């Protein structure tokens, strides 16, 4: 089988293609044939710089490291003792051991979710990290109907889902993005779009119930002042300053994209009924050159939705 690895960290050319035997499942594990995977922020950061300084030791990648974190695929073999999956099941999930391979082996107890047969499996590969992070972020700010939320970085993969989750919760949604994404974000449900390149959001927004920061530290630092007393601020990029949050009388937390099977079932139901759109920016074939290009395109942006890598049929 084909897989893409890196033996060192650095520029795009550290990605190398290898051909190996298809791995077999052992007790308690599944063999999954990958249908699709996508590009996420950690793919770029880890490839360029290695493990994040804040990563727990048990989560740090070890070289050689396989690119990719999320996937959709088909269970093709199961090891002894597997109880909840059988051959032919559709599955999606998240793993730190890499997903740019034709087959992977995962423990049954990994971050795996059974995908309803009626959903297009290829497209589900665009959920994973982005939808988990967006769901967790919206949950962390405890949105309900009639509230106002500002989502920084609405046009990307995570932002595209966060806008929809917030809108489905009944919130008034403001987002920051480039002006060329305005129509796209309005179609997703954004009520207001602030051009971060030409407009200062702190002058346009005051007293919001919640802020979801999907961008950088500078944006996070300037967001405390616009949240109303008792409101919420969460960030996926930069850890909030608890002392600053306390001085502003707001609740602040860091979002990690963890979603329970019950919540993911709700996500699948939204996709099925059409209240959650899977937005795919571009589809790439599973070749070394195309995977490199997907990462380069992700870095350069703009990213309106996900960049999906699809294996051969």
UniProtKB/TrEMBL annotation:
Residues 10-309 form the Enoyl reductase (ER) domain. Coiled coil: none annotated. GO terms for cellular component: cytoplasm. The keyword Transmembrane helix does not apply. It is found in: Cytoplasm. Keywords: Cytoplasm, NADP, RNA-binding. The keyword tRNA-binding does not apply. InterPro entries: ADH-like_N, ER, GroES-like_sf, NAD(P)-bd_dom_sf, Quin_OxRdtase/zeta-crystal_CS, Zinc-ADH_QOR/CCCR. It comes from the Bacteria. SMART domains: PKS_ER. GO terms for molecular function: oxidoreductase activity; RNA binding; zinc ion binding. Homotetramer. This is NADP-dependent oxidoreductase.
């Amino acid at each position: 089988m084909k897989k893409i690895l890196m033996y060192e960290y650095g520029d795009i050319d550290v990605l190398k293609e290898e051909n190996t035997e298809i791995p077999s499942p052992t007790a308690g594990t599944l063999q999954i044939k990958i249908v699709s995977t996508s590009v996420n922020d950690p793919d770029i950061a880890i490839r360029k710089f290695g493990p994040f300084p804040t990563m727990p030791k048990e989560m740090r990648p070890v070289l050689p490291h396989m690119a990719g974190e999320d996937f959709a695929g088909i269970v093709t073999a199961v090891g002894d003792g597997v109880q909840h999956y059988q051959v032919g099941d559709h599955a999606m999930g998240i793993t730190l051991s890499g997903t740019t391979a034709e087959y992977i082996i995962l423990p049954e107890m990994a971050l795996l979710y059974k995908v309803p047969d009626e959903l297009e499996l290829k497209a589900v590969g665009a959920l994973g990290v982005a939808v988990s992070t967006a769901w967790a972020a919206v949950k962390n700010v405890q949105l309900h109907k009639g509230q106002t939320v500002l989502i920084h970085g609405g046009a990307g993969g995570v932002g595209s889902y966060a806008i929809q989750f917030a809108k489905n919760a009944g919130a008034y949604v403001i987002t920051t993005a480039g002006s060329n994404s305005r129509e796209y974000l309005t179609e997703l449900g954004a009520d207001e779009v602030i051009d971060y390149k030409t407009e200062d959001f702190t002058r346009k927004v005051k007293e919001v119930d919640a802020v979801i920061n999907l961008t950088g530290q500078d944006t996070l630092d300037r967001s405390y002042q616009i949240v109303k007393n008792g409101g919420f601020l969460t960030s996926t990029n930069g850890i909030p300053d608890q002392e600053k949050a306390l001085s502003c009388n707001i609740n602040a937390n860091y979002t990690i994209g963890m979603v329970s099977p019950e919540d993911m079932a709700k996500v699948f139901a939204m996709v099925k009924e059409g209240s959650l759109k899977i937005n795919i920016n571009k589809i790439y074939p599973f070749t070394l050159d195309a995977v490199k290009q997907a990462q380069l395109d992700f870095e350069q942006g703009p990213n309106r939705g996900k960049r999906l890598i699809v294996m051969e049929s």
